[in-house]
Amino acid sequence: MSEQPATAPKSLPLVFAEPRGRKKPPRHLADLTSDERKDLLVEMGLPGFRAKQLSTHYFGRLVHDPAEMTDLPAAQRAELVGALLPDLMDPIRQQSADKGKTVKTLWKLFDGSLVESVLMRYKDRATICISSQAGCGMACPFCATGQGGLTRNMSTAEIVHQVVVGARAMASGEVAGGPGRLSNVVFMGMGEPLANYKATLGAVRRLTEEAPSGLGLSARHVTVSTVGLVPRIRQLADEGIPVTLALSLHAPDDELRNDLVPINTRFSVAETVDAAHEYFSKTGRRVSIEYALMRDINDQAWRADLLADVLSAEGRGTGWVHINPIPLNDIPGSQFTRSREEDMDEFVRILNGRGIATTLRDTRGSEIDAACGQLAASE
Questions:
Q1: Would you list the DSSP string of 107-140?
Q2: Active site (annotated) includes residue 372
Q3: Which of 29, 84, 91, 110 has its CA 20 to 30 A from that of 368?
C-alpha cells in the first residue's frame, strides 16, 4: 500500500482474558438456560415456576417494567425481578437518521464501559447491529473501535439485551413507520464476536430459542461477523446452529491484509478463506464476504480480480459466497477514506462479471457518527 502502513501487533489473542478482580456484570436470566433460571430461584427460596413467568415477560412480551408484571405476587415481585432481571445498561445518547428509521444508541454498562447498537428499519425487514465487546482488540487501523482498544468482553445477557430493547422499540412503534417486528440481528457492532466465543454463542442460543427460553428469531436471520479467527470459525461450524457467517476480508492478498487486518499475520488469506468454505460445506449456509472499500488502497480493479481468484480457488466455484463491498465510513483524521463512486462501481462490475454475487452495501446513518465506535469515542 502506498500510504504509511499501520503498526500492528504480530500476535493477537483468540480470546480476551478478563483481568483478575474485575467485577462481573449482573447475572440475568438471559445468561441462563430455562432450567438454570428455575434452579436459581429455588436456591433463593423462591418458587421455581416464577422463572418461566419472568422469561415470558422478558422474551415473549418484551416487558421489563416490574409494574407491568401483574401475574407476579406484589410481595415477591421486587425480589424476583432483582434475581433474574437486573438492570444491565443505560442509554446515554441516541442519534437518528434516515427520517427516524435508523437509530444509533450509545449504552453505558454497569462498570461505565461504553458500547453501541444500531437499529435499522427497511421496507421488508428491521435489522439491529449489536456489539459483543466493549472496544476491540483486533487493532484494524481503519476501524474506530479498533483504534480505541479493548476494554472487556460483554456477557451473554448484555449482548442479548441490545436485541430485546430493539425488538421492544419496533413492537411499540418507537421507530418511524409504526409498530413492527425485529427480524434480523447482525454481530457487526463493537468487538470481535469470536474472540468472546462463549458469550456470543450463548447469545445466539438465547436469540434463536423459542419463547420463553429465548427470543425465537430464525438462526438464518442471525449473522455473526469475524475478521478471521480460523479455529473459532471451525468450532462454530460444528455447533449445529445455521447462522450466517460474515468474513471481514478487506483484502485478497496477505501483503495488504497484514496491514489492514493484523490477525492475518497468524491466519493467512488462504487459511481464512478455507475455514469459511468449510463453514459453508458443513452448514449449507452461504458465507458473506465483507470488504470495506478504501480509496487507492484496496479498491483497484486488479484486486477485484484477485479476490475472485482467491474465493474460487481449489475448485470451490462461486456459489458459496456473496460479497458485500462496503463504502468506508470516514473517520476524522484517518488516512483511510471512502473510495470514489466510479471505482466502487467498477469493483462490483468485475466481481459480478466473474460470476460472484456482489451487492454494494446500503450505507445507513451517513449524517450521524456512522462508523462503529465513533459515538463511543466522542464521549
A1: EEETTS-EEEEEEEE-SS-EEEE--SEEE-SS--
A2: yes
A3: 110
